[in-house]
Fold this protein.
Amino acid sequence: MTHRFAHHLRLDELRAGERLDLLADEEERAAIAKRLDLPGIGRFEAHVCLERTGDMVRAKGRLLASLDQSCVVTGDSIATLIDEPFALIFMPEPAVDRDEEIELGADELDVIFHDGSTIDLGGALADTLALSLDPYPRSVGADAALKEVGVLTEEQASPFAVLAKLRKNDEH
């Protein structure tokens, strides 16, 4: 079943084993691009299988996107393809004192709390997309631009490179 990119799904309408093919329209892609500070998103879709146990919903599937990122050095646009599997767990927000910290274990890192009546699958998938992005995208011309302004590469700035340079200078 193909749906428009779904933001909120009602728990009482979810069926165990339900499969969804979600596709973000132009307006939704523009809103996500703005939120993630991206020049643009050409395609954003997800293929999801939902499993429900009481108030807990598991969403597993694959996230696909084609988008542009800006190079952190030159600002040039970089075409990026995302093809990531995901596994999310939606569960009711625990009743805790607002000042109390909640600690999540390593197997609970993809837990999203819901209000007991709906889950925000679209928001969770946009967050998953954000986590899939290269935090420091670099274009083909980035190294040349850095070299031009005198920034050393990692190899040139490593302690071993510095020692080798000192040793070479001592030999002369």
In short: The mean pLDDT is 82. Strands lie at 2-4, 9-10, 18-23, 40-53, 56-70, 77-92, 111-114, 118-119.
